[in-house]
Amino acid sequence: MSLQRYRAALRVRDGYWFAPKLFGWGATPVTWQGWLTMLVFIPAIVAVLNWAPTQFIRLGVALPMLAVFVWFVWTKTDGGFRWRWGPDRD
């Protein structure tokens, strides 16, 4: 795959922060807002998992955090989530 084709596959429309992964399922951040979202979420979930006093509280806080995060990333992904095996063909 050429570099231009790869970069074109990761381009998003205005208002979107994530692009669909080229291989697999999910999304990857491609704007500064997307990267900031990741940099805020990861330490927050790690903090909950490390400092919550019981396993019940860890799961009770971490699972809703993860669900909201995945929903938010899904809404900010240009093209949605689906299995991909390389860039879409034009």
Biggest sheet strand line-up: 1-3
Radius of gyration: 16 Å
The string of secondary-structure elements, in order, is: HEEEHHE
Distance between the termini: 14 Å
Beta strand count: 4
Which residue ranges are poorly predicted, with pLDDT under 50 across at least 5 consecutive positions?
none
Helix content: 40-55%
Mean pLDDT: 86
Question: Which descriptor suits the 3D outline?
Answer: elongated
Fraction in beta strands: 5-15%
**Can you count the helices?**
3
Largest sheet data = 2 strands, antiparallel
Number of domains: 1
Structural class: mainly alpha
Describe the model.
The chain has one domain (3-85). The mean pLDDT is 86. The longest helix is centred in the last third of the chain and has 21 residues, at 55-75. It contains three helices and four strands; from the N terminus they run H-E-E-E-H-H-E. The strands form two sheets. The chain has a two-stranded antiparallel sheet with strand order 1-3. It is elongated. 8% of the residues are buried. Helix 2 (32-51) packs antiparallel against helix 3. It has 90 residues and is mainly alpha-helical. It starts with a helix and ends in a 5-residue tail after the last strand.
